[in-house]
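Teaching assistant's notes for section 4

Start the section by putting this record on the projector. Ask students to predict, before seeing the second block, whether Glyoxalase-like domain-containing protein will look compact or extended. Collect guesses on the board.
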Amino acid sequence: MTSTQHDHIVLLVDTSYFENLPSWVTDNFTVTQGGYHDGQASRNKLVIFADGSYLEFFNWYDTPPSLDDENLPMRFWGSKRPGLIDFAITDTSHSAEESVDAVNERLSEEPISDAGLGIKFGKPVAGSRKKGDGVEIAWKVTRPEFFQGEKTPSQELFVDGRVDVPFFCHDTTKRTDRVPFTDEKKTTHPCGATGIAACEVLVPGDLLAEYASLYSKIIGSKAEPSDDQRPYTFDIGVPHGSQRAAVVVRAAESERDVRHMHSRGIGFSDLVLTTSSAGPGGNQRRPLGSEGIESTIWLER
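Reveal the predicted structure now:
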């Protein structure tokens, strides 16, 4: 069983959206004020779950940092369009340095190494922000570093920048300061959401096995067996409680999936949240909406 856990989901929104969150957000979730990040023009609001993870509404309120600024890991989101753009994983039993060393060691193991996709992880970089109550919280972010590999997909499948694998986020201050998951007022949501069930990742069908191998090494988890290995499901933990979750790597085969991948690129496509109750009519899984960002977020009993 892997010690890697879901940490948080990054949902990029523009300024007007951020300042006036739509009804699909406010009707379904309790929103907690976040704060402003140090060193760059960004801020956030959070939807915190009882499992210790959270959904981050991330906004550039001014010009994003340059891609040359290596001390600002969030610079990779500067070219992204609104929507689900990234997700973070963590390991609350190991430091950022220990985690990245273990992942890079797995990614260098022959004969498969990084499956020819051109990925390794850089050194952890410190980040921080000040909360509304003045409390300063800090963490370390470890981002993937991309290079041209034998099987790296063409640039046209990285529409607005390459972000096809998650990053790591490790707390250096108390986690409950960053993620107050013990506060029931903040973790109780009208839709009944209690945590992350799965992050789904879309990849080209001819590279499904390669991406599955890559994710297995990053997460430190083997795929759960299925008849045809489509899709690949990887076990992952959550920061609080005994619940287990998943990362699902699947081929873009349906018309919706192909359209999504060609418009937004390879990578994170859908978020599935665990809920305490079924939806209308007893549905076991339903999206929060039929179109837009809300159509990529699902509730699952």
